[in-house]
Amino acid sequence: MTALPRPALAPLETGGPAPLVLPLREATERLGAAWDRLADEAAEPNVFTDRAMLRAAAGRVEPDDWSVIALPAIGPEVGPASGGARPLDALAVVRRARVLPGVGPVVTDLFASRYGPLGTPLAQPGFDAGRLIDALAVIGPVARLPYQRLDGPFAASLARAAEGREIHLATVDAHHRAALRLADGPDLYGPGLQGKRLKELGRLMRRLDGAGGVRHEVATTPVEVANAFSLFLALEHASWKGRGGTSLAVAPGGTAFAADLVAELARTGRVRVDLLAVAGRPVAALISFFAGVSGFIWKIAHDESHAAASPGVQLIRLVSEDWRAAGRLADVDSLATPGHPMIDRLWAGRFAMGTIILATRPGANGLAARAADLHARRRSLAAAARAALGRLRGG
Predict the structure, then answer these.
(1) Considering the domain boundaries, does residue 4 fall inside one?
(2) Which of 36, 71, 338, 380 is the most buried if burial means most Cβ atoms within 10 Å?
């Protein structure tokens, strides 16, 4: 794939100045302060559409041919808060790809990553998603938006705009993802952190304490985070992920990507690394990111020799209580797969998630329907293959 060409874009029919389409590397420099300000003000914060994520991931763990669609704000004058650039109403990171590798229609994909499974574009509160649809229409007739919050304001605005334009919009891969919805009231926890199980966790924590003393350590400054991150890498690589070749330490480009991302977020106070140590040695580590009033559990690892005491669950419990007591976050996204065996039992909250595929203009409705059908069939076949493999392994 090559980067998108830079079409000469006129002001959109929905109003406002013409959108910008820039190669990713140019956009991270040219839009710098305006991009950062939008990330801070977005109605749905997404740390994975942050400049830090894109600069760290492109060319290492993700392709480097992404482009940025930026929609300048309507009305306000250029000011110092945006570093001399016009403020932005919305921003999306995109590239062109086929629905399936080498198969199906070409679509405009919005950015999401296996290292950041949340694809919500950045948009100001009250943003009309129709403006983004119109900008996407200049790039291509069909757009695919993976890992969208289906219960969020952007998805609602997108649905209204699609209905008004009489364009096809389909939701595929619909599922629920565990979340700590701190703004929803006291009923935060699932059965894994209630009743008899909570008492059992207390007993197991006392057992860990008897093995040399338990200490919960929190790293937030750049130096603290760098040291804690190195301990996380070692812990993760010593686990089943290291044996399976999926730890950051062995993934191609993984260590450099993660180190740069964590360091940049630490510089701006948007990462926290929690360690649970026994006798001075870490037995569990958790990396969390933050954007606006939202948190994201990014990585967790534990020492398998202490698995009987559930050190990962113990750490999630401690951190969840810290977040509730602090009162600064509205929600924390687990970023977990559907039906995750651990986090689904710990947190009662859920986010509705899915992939949205839509035509960007009425003449492409049939093409969008075909793209959605192919995407859904691929997911169904992949799920069936995983189930068959599980049955074979089970004997």
Answers:
(1) no
(2) 71
